[in-house]
Design a protein that fits this description.
Number of helices: 14
Strand order of the largest sheet: 7-6-15-16-17-14-18-21
Structural class: alpha/beta
Largest sheet: 8 strands, mixed
Radius of gyration: 22 Å
Distance between the termini: 40 Å
Low-confidence stretches: 400-406
């Protein structure tokens, strides 16, 4: 068995793990990344596409924002379509100039992978893709990671383990049952999404509340669109031809948007179930959970990637404080700080999902109440401000790596 030693072992090479690795690299902290999938698989996953300003700032801090600056689409507002009428929520005007940026998670991952590869030889960075039988051990004492790579058994001795390995990962699953508590809500529908190389139907996202169910008109660029439909969990992708998808989307849109909609052949199509999920705590001895390993939100509030980024902001800062300043404060406060932000994002995502979707079990009275609530929000400056503040991302204060090392 080959034995390696490092300061931080990062399990998972998605955007959370790679972003943590990049920030630790810039701070001069040794780390190794272990990923069960291939690099090609990781880079090809289609995920969310809305970045809060705090996430944009963190990518800049990590030195991986060049393509984001060139290709990202800043958005200062969103549209909500209800009862056949569109209502604009001016995010910037309601939040003192804040906005969001449309830039796909796939592109974020590729940017981080490119940056790591560029620094790999000079900094002797180590990554293991397609690692098999990954196990995390003794994280309440002297942490170790065991796995097999290209037929060879490898063990890593480290100071800390960062569990960035997603909802189905090994890190959370390795925590003793009496040390962890989970909270979960599973929604009785999914999102059928397609990606197509057609111009977006509008310059800003359109969230649709309709009698036929929820829909979302989004984009990845000025020539690539991402559209979603609420569908039953019993539906299969094979049930939905491109023609059927476009026809149903048109039925949920207003007349103006319907006439502007340009259809085309889908280049990706999938159905994603929706759930809300939180783990408490997010630290177990010397192992930390971050991103989807610790929490899941329905995509309605555009918070998944942004919550992962804020976790990494707290975690990277805590590790820098530990190694550079010799302070345990950030490590000790990591879980509490993260969960304060997580639960607020969970609430907003649940609220948006509840407000905009049709539930099979809801009565006509409940449906009318939801319509009245949405009407109030869209007709009230205070209501729209609450929505806008949550959508652009609630503020949080944290030192940057450069500030901590200064």
């Amino acid at each position: 068995m080959e034995t390696l030693t490092t300061q931080v072992a990062i399990i998972g090479a998605g955007p959370a793990g790679l972003l943590l690795g990049q920030l630790l690299y810039k701070a001069g902290i040794e780390h190794i990344v272990i990923e069960q999938r291939s690099a090609e698989y990781v880079a090809s996953r289609i995920r969310a596409g809305i970045l809060e300003q705090v996430s944009v700032d963190l990518l800049k801090q990590a030195g991986v924002d060049q393509h984001l600056k060139e290709r990202g689409l800043p958005h200062s507002g969103i549209e909500i379509l209800t009862n056949g009428q569109k209502h604009r929520v001016d995010l910037s005007a309601l939040t003192g100039g804040k906005q969001v940026t449309v830039y796909g998670q796939t592109e974020v991952t590729k940017d981080l992978m490119t940056a790591r590869e560029a620094a790999r030889e000079a900094a002797q960075l180590t990554s293991f893709y397609e690692a098999e039988n990954v196990q995390v051990k003794d994280f309440y004492g002297a942490p170790q990671v065991h796995f097999e790579y290209q037929g060879k058994a490898i063990q890593i001795h480290c100071d800390f383990i960062a569990g960035c390995d997603g909802y189905h990962g090994i890190c959370r699953a390795s925590v003793p049952a009496d040390k962890i508590k989970t909270f979960e809500k599973v929604y009785p529908f999914g999102w059928l999404g397609i990606l197509a190389d057609v111009p977006p139907v509008a310059d800003e996202l359109i969230y649709v509340q309709s009698e036929r169910g929820f829909a979302l008109c989004s984009m990845r660029s000025e020539t690539r669109s991402r559209y979603y439909l609420q569908v039953p969990l019993t539906d299969r992708v094979e049930d939905w031809s491109d023609e059927r998808f476009w026809d149903e989307l048109k039925c949920r849109l207003d007349i103006e948007s319907r006439e502007k909609l340009i259809t085309g052949v889908s280049i990706e199509k999938s159905i994603a179930p929706l759930r809300s999920f939180v783990t408490e705590p997010m630290r177990f001895g010397k192992m930390f959970l971050a991103g989807d390993a610790a929490h899941i939100v329905p995509p309605t509030g555009a918070k998944g990637l942004n919550l992962a980024a804020s976790d990494i902001a707290y975690l990277s800062s805590a590790l820098v404080e530990y190694y550079i300043e010799g302070s345990d404060q950030g490590i000790d406060q990591y879980s509490e700080k993260c969960l304060q932000r997580v639960w607020k994002a969970e609430r907003f995502s649940w609220w948006m999902t509840h407000l905009l979707h049709r539930f099979e079990t809801e009565t006509e009275f409940e449906h009318k109440i939801k319509q009245a609530e949405l009407s109030y929000i869209l007709g009230s400056t205070a209501g729209k401000t609450t929505l806008a503040e949550n959508y652009v991302g609630l503020p949080y204060e944290i030192q940057s790596v450069s500030e901590t090392c200064a």
